Amino acid sequence: MKRIITIGREFGSGGHEIGKLTAEALGIAFYDKELLAAVAKESGFSERYIEEGGEYATATNSLLFNIAVSSGYNTPGKGLTPSDQVYVLQSNLIRDLAEETPCVIVGRCADYILRERTDCLHVFLYADMDYRERRIVERYGQTKMTPENRLKDKDKRRRVFYRHYTGRDWGSPHNYDLCLNTGAVGTERCVEILTDLYRTL
Amino acid sequence: MKRIITIGREFGSGGHEIGKLTAEALGIAFYDKELLAAVAKESGFSERYIEEGGEYATATNSLLFNIAVSSGYNTPGKGLTPSDQVYVLQSNLIRDLAEETPCVIVGRCADYILRERTDCLHVFLYADMDYRERRIVERYGQTKMTPENRLKDKDKRRRVFYRHYTGRDWGSPHNYDLCLNTGAVGTERCVEILTDLYRTL
Prior knowledge:
Two copies of one chain form a homodimer.
Chain A: E1 4-9, H1 15-26, E2 29-31, H2 33-42, H3 45-51, H4 63-70, H5 82-100, E3 103-106, H6 110-113, E4 120-126, H7 129-140, H8 147-166, E5 178-181, H9 182-185, H10 187-200
Parallel strand pairs in A: 1-3, 1-4, 2-3, 4-5
Helix pairs in contact in A: 1-10, 3-5, 4-5
């Protein structure tokens, strides 16, 4: 039995949707990049918390903010870049969420941040370019960039971000317990495999 | 429903065993590197077939040899290195086996050789160094080389072999439909996932 699923995913692979469906099937919480960013931002994480050295904690009702602030480790220092500060705060947040509640976490190097825990299932979701190109055009429409270039650009950003904060190669199987080609395996079967492994490993 | 499973695997990951158990569970044939090499050698593939331009086919009873010889494509030329000749012949053999009979094929770049077929499940099996070190010492005993160096050496050979003949990166998820960490997922669950996907995809 696992408590947490972390999902790394290529843009357009449907990893976000598979994460959400898996969380729903298991009846556990779901956190994605946008939610974590919003929580950090709304709680004043990236600026106010840092300026006020944690005292801002008393001015918010956010559970997430409070548990992140109350964690003693990795308090962001003034020497860090804004991007690093946000990363450190989100890392604390992810660690505390993992401690507090069973959940699925998509993105944000969560596999790396939670690598010491033995109750996590670490997953990477990917797909062929064709599949992903079709999917992003269906979902997000056309833009000035070609679908292929949008994918390459986004993948590159994720690879650089992951490398910067973990020192590891994004999407290298050894970072994960399993990697699924969502186009080949299909959304439904991916969800089945993940829920099944979560319950039984 | 798939017809073929190809398995790429890191040394010590248990990929060979998982392939064999999966073939048994599905009641289909199993071919590994050693068997394919033996068939090629016994049939005189690497030397006699090439020297006699295929006429040797009439002098053998080997079904495998006959189907490989009868395939018109990729006839090895005299300009190839012995290693390349064996690769070409084994590629023909793998293509014809795939055409003839449902099977599990371990190693030999089978994922690449059969990449145009839509009835294959392509799998990569890997594991952490610790798990693999323990496993090779249990299975094959100690040698003068440390377990870690034996793994690195073997992985390197497979990577170079795969790169040479396919132009692709060995163990990169995009070559496969799924990648399983055998140490984390466990032999039994790996076999279940593979048999299940084989039957239902």
